[in-house]
Amino acid sequence: MNATAVHTIxxxxxxxxxxxxxxxxxxRFYTTDFAAMDRISIEPVRAEWDKMMAxxxxxxxxDHFQRDEAFADEVAAGMASLSPEMRQEFLDFLVSSxxxxxxxxxxxxxxxxxxxxxxxxxxxxxxxxxxxxHAGFINLSLxxxxxxxxxxxxxxxxxxxxxxxxxxxxxxxxxxxxxxARYITIFRQLEKHPEKRFHxxxxxxxxxxxxxxxxxxxxxxxxxxxxHLLQGANKLWIRFFLLAVYATMYVRxxxxxxxxxxxxxxxxxxxxxxxxxxxxxxxxxxxxxLDTDNPQFRRGLERLFALSKAMExxxxxxxxxxxxxxGVCAVQAAATFARLYCMPxxxxxxxxxxxxxxxx
Length: 360
Known about the structure:
CATH class: Mainly Alpha
Helix content: 55-70%
Strand content: under 5%
Number of strands: 4
CATH topology: Ribonucleotide Reductase, subunit A
CATH architecture: Orthogonal Bundle
Largest sheet: 2 strands, parallel
Structural class: mainly alpha
Radius of gyration: 20 Å
């Protein structure tokens, strides 16, 4: 195993501990101010909103998440070709992806139960439905290895983070759109190179990522209907969430270099392709973008990953010296993040058309 944040997943207990575990790069569970969310108005985008609700009602992915007869045979053939280290990276990917999908399901369900605003309640019902399907589909693949996650226990025991509604909008919009960019990039790569599709779950990524795209559209409409969320000091928060999401993704992905290599991808090139797609999409709602092609920005992300590895090594070392090293790494990581945050950003005009199509 390489010295990263990927820990051995050998039993269902290991998988469940991994899902419950919280650190800087693991998916989190959120709660919010339900009363404030209840007051959100979508009237300025009513026509687009009603059209989107009709799409959710049509549920074009209703029958998509069903495993076909070839699934089990593909699992057996693909996994037999993987090294133990590569197998661990893939299992880590599945657990992390399930936790992220289920995080959305939990949040959307909690909002649905605690608001009376009919538009928000209806939206959250549809979002929770979709995320539940995604999480359940991933969990079936984990159960193939006797590593299924107890979702009820995960909901009860995972640590929750409180976010104001506007933070939920920024972070969830980005999460859904970057999820689309990640899945479609992998799908297009394996579409060109089917011999590198070592697990059948990747065959589902095309329609799956369109769910993610539409979820992001929902939060784009909410923010465009409430333009104060995109102005003034809120631009600083948008910059923060862009950097936090990109940096977290970069560090997490670089803990799984063999996973990307097996698909014919380089972790860095893959991440920057995802950033480029996400930047193109976010022009629909964000008045600024990060200059991810700036060499200084790239060096900063490399530095964050190096510090993440050093912190893992310090944790493994243990003792007083290990704790001191962890503290030094944390300070250096905060300073690196601050320098990245202060870099010039790209100002951009919002696209006149709020809704976008998944065209990548």
